[in-house]
Amino acid sequence: MSIERQKLGKHGENLAENYLVKHEYTVIAKNWRCSIGELDLVVEKDEQIIFVEVRTRRGNHFGTPEASLTPRKQAKLVELAWTFLAEHDYEAYQWRIDVIAIMLNRQWKIERLNHIEWAIEA
């Protein structure tokens, strides 16, 4: 992954985290990793665990951020969520997977932020 793409992803994750905190979510984990992959953000609100996948784009010549979430990536997120729940004793909790799609302008400012709750069925 190019340094530019890494910076874009990190910037998007920071913007998403700020958005979630502003909307009264509590951050449990950020960039949680295990042998099968990584979760961008894990948050809690109203006694529910929410796994958040952040998709960030600058310009739409590569499509929208939402469209970049392939069926394969969705399946991986479900697997990662179950792994996180098992490793942290959250298996009895209600949970869901959300997507935060961010479109940035040329100055790296938010042009559009779309928080899609229950984005992926588990």
Structure description:
The structure is a single chain. The chain has 122 residues and is of the alpha+beta class. The protein has a single domain (3-120), classed as 3-Layer(aba) Sandwich (Trna Endonuclease, Chain: A, domain 1), CATH 3.40.1350.10. The protein has two helices and five strands, in the order H-E-E-E-H-E-E. It has helices spanning 3-22, 71-87, and strands spanning 26-34, 37-45, 48-58, 94-104, 110-120. The chain has a five-stranded mixed beta sheet, sandwiched between helices. The N and C termini lie far apart (28 Å). The mean pLDDT is 92.
Alpha-beta content class:
alpha+beta
**Shape annotation:** globular
**Segments where pLDDT lies below 50 for 5+ residues?**
none
Ends distance: 28 Å
Architecture (CATH level 2) name: 3-Layer(aba) Sandwich
According to CATH, the fold-level topology is Trna Endonuclease, Chain: A, domain 1
Number of strands: 5
Taking all residues together, what is the mean pLDDT? 92
Count of domain modules: 1
Give the H and E element order.
Answer: HEEEHEE
Main-sheet strand order equals 1-2-3-4-5
The helix content is 25-40%
